Every structure is written in C-alpha cells, then in structure tokens.
Amino acid sequence: MRIAILTDIHANREAFAAVLADVDQRKVQQIVLLGDIVGYGPDPEWCCARAMQLAGAGALVVQGNHDAAVAKPDTSMNITARRAMDWTRPRLSPGQVAFLSGLPMTHRIGDLLFVHASANDPQDWIYVTSAQRAMPSFRVCQDRVIFCGHVHVPRLISCDINNRVAEQPIPMGNPVPLIRSRRWLAVVGAVGQPRDGRPQAGYAVMDTVRNELSFMRVPYDTATTVAKLRAAGLPESLAMRLQSGA
Amino acid sequence: MRTRPQTGMEIDGFTLGEKLHEGGFATIWDVTHALYRTPLVMKVPKIMDGDDGPTIVGFEVEQMILPRLTGVHVPRVVGVGDFTAMPYIVTERIPGDSMLKLFLDAPSPLSEVIELGARMAAAVHDLHRQHVIHLDLKPENFLQRPTGEMVLVDYGLSRHDQIPDLLAEEFTIPMGTFPYIAPEQYLRSRIDPRSDIFALGAMLYQLATGKYPFGKPEKLRGVKKRLWRDPVPPRALVPDLPEWLQEIILRALEVDPARRYQTAAQMMFDLTHPTQVKLTDRAAKLQQDGFGTVFRRWRKMRRVKGFAAPASVQSQISRAPIMLVAVDLSHEMERLADQLRLNVQRMLVTEPDMRVACVNVIKTHRMAIDNVLDDEGNHMHVSRLVGLKHWAEGIDLGEDRLTYTVLENTDPAAAIIDYARHNHVDHILMGARGHSTTRRYLGSVSSQVVAESHCSVTVIRLRETEDSAAA
Fold this sequence. Notes:
The complex is a heterodimer of chains A (246) and B (471). With 246 residues, chain A is an alpha/beta fold.
C-alpha cells in the first residue's frame, strides 16, 4: 500500500490543492493528515472542508495544536499564531469547529504510527528537532515507523538495535528504504508553511510493500496565497515566510 | 541473543540446507523455498552477542542497497529478515566459485587478463550507473554467470549516493580490503566511484603478474604508503606484457583519482580496443620511481587530506561520457561532417572528460563478394580510417580519448546501435541527410538509430537553403 502523509496545511489552499493533485499522480491508496489543517493561512474554511471531505472518503486525520486551539485557546502559542487564530476562529462553521476539536491524537496502520508532534505526550506538542529529541518517541511505543509533523522541517531519524538514534540525510524525491533492522521516525515537511529554506509544499509517500519512504516537494502558486494573506490583514511575517520557505 | 542458523532450520518459508561458506562476518547457506524453483542462498551475518557495530551496520547497508539493484551484474534478492528472529538476505544462487581461485593461480594468460578485465569493468560500470560504489572490490566478490556476465556480491561497505550512508556516521577508520583499497578510501572518502577503478587496476595487476601492486599490508600504516610509493611496473615482472596493458593498469592505479580512468566504461573501452590505447610514460616504465621522486612525493602526500571528489556517482558518469560520432565521409556530406565536428568541439567545452569514438560504417552487400579495394585500388578499410582521422583533426582531445573505428555491415544503423551497446556509449551524435521522398519511404539510418538505440541520440541536420529545398 502507498500512503501519502500530509501535515501542517495551515489554511494554505493553493499548497494543499497542489499537493493533492500531485498525490493523485502517485497511485496512493491512503491519505493521512497529521494535523494543523488551519492556523496562519488565509483559507481555513476551504482547507477544513477539503480535509472533512477526505476524511469522509477514508483519509485518517490526527489533531494538531492549531486545530485544538480553535475550540480551546492555547496560551503557549506565540503572538503571530494567536493573532492568526483569532482571525481564523469566527470564519469556521460550528461543524468545522466540531470536526477539528474532535480529532484523535494518534492513528495507526499496521506498524506505522501517525501523530502531529511526538509519540511521547502528544498533547504537549513537543518539537522533534534533533535525533536526541526523537529518543522519547522511540521509548514510549513499539511502532516501527513514527510519522509526525509540527516542526515544518523534514527530518529522518533512525534507532538501531542498540537503541542508538541517528539523523539520516534526506535524499529529496528519492525513496529511502526503511530497513526493518531499525525503527524510524520521520518528521514530514509542511504542506502550507515550509521552514527548511525551500518554499515548495512538502509531503511524504510511504510504500509499505517496498518499505520505502519518499520525501516530496511540490511547487505551488505562493504569490496568490501571499496576496490573500495581505488582503486579510494577517501578519506580514507570515507572507514573508511563505515566499522564502524559512 | 537470537536464533543461530543451522541445517534444517525453517524461517519465513525458507529451509536451510548445507552451509556453503563461512567467512569472517557471515555464513552462506543453501536454501530452498516452496515458491522458488531457482537455487537460492542465504547470507546470515555473524553477530556476536553484545555490541557488534561494524557487522550489524554492514549488514544493514547491504539490506538497504542490494534490493534496489537490478540487472545481470547483481544477484536478485528474494527475501530479507530483520533482527527479531534472525537477520538474513536471500538471493538467487550464482553457480560456481568466485574469481578467487583464478587470482591465486595468477599470472594468467594475456588473453584471459584482457577478457576478464573487460567483463569485470562492465559489471562495475553497471553498478555505478545504478548510483552504487562497491568500495570493496576483490576477487572473492566477483562471481560469474554461466552466460559469462560477472556478478558483484557483498555490499556491506558500499555506498548508494541517493540513500543515507549508515557507515559514514558510525566509523572513522578506513574500510576496505588492504591490497585493493584506493588511496582516497584510506583518507576516508566514500563518495568517489573512481575508488572502484583503482581496485580494478589492482586486480588486473595481480591477474597479469601474480603479485599485489602494493603487497599485502597487515596494518593500516602499510596502506598509506601507496599515496607516494608507486608499484613495480608490471612489465618489470612479466617482460612480454604489452605496453598498452601496462598503460591501462598503471593509469587505473594513479594516486589522484583525477588521473585515473574517469569511468569503468572508459577503462573497458581501452581493454577492448588495445590498438587504440595511447601510450604515455606509464607504458614504457620498467622500474619504480627513484628515491628522489618518491621522497618528494612523500613530503607532499603525507599531509594530504583528500582528493577532489565528484558530487555524486551520477555526476561522475555523466561528466565522463563516451560519445559515438558516426561520420559519413562521402563527398556530398562534407558540410554535414563539418557541422558534426563543430558540435563535438562544442560539447567538449561542457564535458571535458568526454571520450569520443569516431565511427564510420562501410556498407557491405549481402550476396556479392565485396570488393575491398576502391576504384583507385586503395584498401577501403584503411582509406576510411585515414578519412576519419583527417575529419577529427581540430578536435582537441589530449592523451587517449579519441578513437577511430571502421565497421562493416549490411545494415549501417544496426552496426552503430550494436557498437554503442557493446561499448557502453552514452550518447550518439550523427548527421541526417536532407529530406526527400525516397528517404521518407525507405527510412534513414539516423531515424533507425534514434528509434532503436539504448542511449541518447543527437541528430545534426543542415538547414536547407532556399535553392536546395526547391531542387
């Protein structure tokens, strides 16, 4: 089975649509959304509606911190995120708010675990920004591959039979064999707000038969999204971020 | 900690037969499986209890790389097992022994050295094309199919340039087999496909002379010496070894990768075209360099940290392509031939390591006995060769990267396509004659080459002038 894993869509309609169009070309049987469907971006209604539609068609969706913050304000969020959230909240329908706040924290398919931030204490929204920070995720579960988002920077970390963790370079666009002698944690890059220096939308495809993971990048029309952000009066830093991907 | 392999054991549907081989790091077993008729072997790493890092990582590297490889030069993988029960890799069984015995009986007859060397280089080039550098080439790792193709085994030290290198992060000591390891591998490089060229050179040296070019060092310190100490020239050991073969061997054994063959295909090309090998000082050498030269080299090399390496295996191969230029020497095609030469010169600007094989085809007749002499009584083959060389004047390719071949065939397109395939040609450059109704119906040589070649083909056509189009 081929699984497309999308995360951190952040109300970026153009990026979300571009990635879904790319997914369509890749013979994918299952879609998993790792949360943060809304927040930051100018199109929360459309993105949320599209996610609900995908969920209705069998996609698995887990909750991200921005999704949770729609119903329950999160005081730990930075000022930009909070301003964007205050802008987002009144735009969502009651049905959409119920969908976002009712999402589960994790999903599993076979020996794959899907979570927004980290496998350990997922509700604490911990950032996996290094191999060391992935260690607790490996400790708390038995799953062979853990997929998470939240950081907006793609990362691949392995844990060998002696429980040594190591970050592996990501060959963008080329499949990495996730050999079974190790356990793996993949931080999938953001669809709607990449922060690794490339503005293209990120996602990943896991092929469970070949046991290979591919990190993908898809170009999209950033200019349109940026124009919408500015028209909506959202913080300018969000627009700059989409243009630079950093 | 885990299950140990033994005869009769069953795992994931595989039944272990007899133990075929026991090496330092792994055992090899004959196995059967209800779903497979072909003979299979299982490789099981010898993992001692506790922390056995190198063996484990080597096994993981092989598990990552081997299943991605395809083609006749690699064993086909049918199953892999992780550490939960017993780690293993099952592949098709290649019958017969490795090349080891043959190498122990070296020196081999000249014809065998050349023929084996070419087949070994072909296998290595196929691997490089698939983004993999073997990094542990030695006679034990070459098996042979009944059809003659060499099969490369043991990818425990290999590097795939598109997947994470598990070995790079774990160990800082140089890895490889001491008699064959390249100088840059000693300096910890794991990204240069030309390291495999060096190992090929060391093996050819051994096969031709019966000796290791750098002895058989026991310690790492002994390996370092090859950075400044040149091997005894093969012709000093085997006086009747031809100069061109010494040229090939010593070129492959150059310390700086930039001075070696740039691809295995280029090395194979020389092995299969001995008369066209350009001889340099390497060919004539009959003794090792003198004390002064070696001392100067030692002063320079002992502090060397590394050599310039390519960005990837792929970039190295595409930087040093083999291009076939099919030249039509007939009088009316002169302007087209000039255009072809201009194009070659232009391509050399962007790909300076390119090798150019100039080819001309004599079309023979199926039935009649061909007259090998032309109207003036000149030998046709020779006169074409002279013509080709004349055409190539002005192509500035130093040393040895320009060759001339005249082929004879009833079907010129087929001759070009075959030659390109056998010589791992990356790119064919040829001219097309102008448009004409006859050509459209009978088909042209260039269109057949474009349709049937395995590599890129660029077709050059002269822009039709007003009056020639009207004619």
